[in-house]
Amino acid sequence: MKNILIIDDEEKLRGLLARIVKSEGFDIIEAPDLKSGFKKLEQNDIDVVLCDVKLPDGNGVDFLQKIKSNFPLTEVILLTAFGKIADGVQAMKNGAFDYIVKGDDNDKIIPLLYKAFEKVQLQKKVKQLEKRISDKYSFDTIIGKSKAIELVIDLAKKVAKTNSTVLLTGETGTGKEVFAQSIHENSLRSNKSFVALNCSTFSKEILESELFGHKQGAFTGAIKDKKGFIEEANDGTLFLDEIGEMPIELQAKLLRVLETNEFIAIGDTTPKKSNFRLIAATNRDLKTESEEHRFRSDLYFRLNIFEINIPPLRERTKDIAPLVHFFVKQYSSSINKKALQIDDDFLQKLEIYHWPGNVRELKNVIERAVILTNEEVLTADVLPYEIQHQNRSQSKSMSAFSMNSVEKLHIQKVLNYTKGNKAETARLLEIGIATLYRKIEEFGL
Q: How far, CA to CA in Å, does 56 sit from each of 59, 67, 76, 139?
């Protein structure tokens, strides 16, 4: 439907305009004054308003503000018998799509209507996409029934409405970016940008350029000015993932930005302002890192205003079943497979597994299983070998309180810290490299 509202007190002119516009396939609604025009707006989904400037009960330029305030997606074209520059300027300031003179500009009306309608359709699509993103990152969509995850969601909901810096901690794969997105989408900045940067992905030089931006000619290859993520996140949210990997030299620059909201692009001399909200994430223990001088303590205290620790999947086994059902449905749909049933043994194997890669690993396992199965029921034989060939006694021996569990978790943390460098991991653990390989095989790391 292309609904056009024409507001004009001259019935003959209104009728003539209505016939012209209707002949182009638009649906016409008419009103003789502003009061009845506003009622029509409330009762119908109006795309574009053609409104006279001088009406018995008011001025179209002033009425325009009321329309844009109550129906922001509706476009307004103002019509006047006497074109005044001051009225035209004010009309555009108030949000008019255009301001034209009756008679002189009649040939412009139809092309303008098409352009205004195209803009309305584009705005509606953007709004729909924003709603989908907002719905996707609603706290209600975070899957889990365990008390551990419910506590985390409650904390995230409380901090979302503030502008406080948030530090998300937890092992790799626990869903820190999902929580960062949810906090942003439920914040007062949700209509602004969410900008994410992984600090472990780049070298120091490139990371500095990505964060702060650079001026043309600042270094070899800087062929034009580039906005940094800090500037892109102005009035929105900047998410720095793996912040524990940030080089210590850049930590000082980031700290200054957090304290002053000012930054200087590489090669520039003029400071710029950026009013962003910071959410940071790490799988490292930043307190220990700062105590051992691998992370600036002043930055750690600046980041640690509101810490949320996301528990590993092995500590919230109640969440495995609902996550499995969600991922099975998602991946079955993505490859056009009929909705798959889940065998009890399949689910049991998943519930007793220790999940070193957390939710991310579970997601990958389910995707693989859905692709592999040729049946209508998911059975344990499509699971990876290490998950198939485990039993409850093995699971119990790996409980959160067993020495095996503690040893495995510690080795995993050191491997994460060294980014998988086994020689460095063995050195830090003060064990032989052969022993480390044996432990990795034993624990399935």
A: 8, 18, 19, 50
AA identity, residue 355:
W
- Count CB-CB contacts under 10 A for residue 162: 14
Complete DSSP assignment for 198-233:
ETTSS-HHHHHHHHH-B-TTSSTT--S-B--HHHHT
For residue 235, list its beta bridge partners.
none
Question: In sequence order, what DSSP letters do the residues of 30-68 get, joined into one string?
Answer: EESSHHHHHHHHHHS--SEEEEESEETTEEHHHHHHHHH
- CA end-to-end distance (rounded Å), the chain: 59
pLDDT in 10s for each residue of the chain, 445 residues: 689 999 999 898 889 889 988 988 899 999 999 999 999 999 999 999 999 988 999 888 889 989 998 999 999 999 887 767 666 778 888 888 988 887 666 678 889 899 999 999 888 887 777 666 655 667 878 898 899 999 999 999 999 999 999 999 999 999 999 999 999 999 999 989 999 999 998 999 999 999 999 999 888 888 889 999 999 999 999 999 999 999 999 999 999 999 999 999 999 999 999 999 999 999 999 999 999 999 999 999 999 999 999 999 998 999 999 999 999 999 998 888 888 999 999 999 999 999 999 999 999 999 999 999 988 999 999 999 889 887 554 444 445 556 767 788 788 888 878 878 888 888 888 888 778 877 887 776 7
Contacts of 44 (CB under 8 A, 6+ apart): 3, 5, 29
Using DSSP, state whether 264 is helix, strand or coil: coil
> 211-226 burial, b for 16+ CB within 10 Å, e for fewer?
bbbbbeebeeeeeeeb
> Do 50 and 7 contact (CB within 8 A), yes or no?
yes
Residues facing 377 on adjacent strands? 341
181-183-189 Cα angle (round to 5): 95
Extract the tokens encoding 438. Answer: 């044996």
Q: Is 52 left (phi over 0), alpha (psi -120 to 50) or beta?
A: beta
User: What does pTM read for this prediction?
Assistant: 0.64
- Contact between 189 and 236 (Cβ < 8 Å): yes
Please, is 272 exposed, middle or buried when counting C-beta atoms within 10 Å of its C-beta (0-12, 13-18, 19+)?
Answer: middle
For residue 124, what are its two tokens? 């509606």
Interstrand relation of 272-273 and 262-263 (parallel, antiparallel or unpaired)? antiparallel
Instruction: Give CA–CA dist 239/17, Å, rounded.
Output: 52
Asked whether the beta carbons of 312 and 174 are under 8 A apart, the reply is: yes
Torsional sign, CA 381, 387, 388, 393: negative
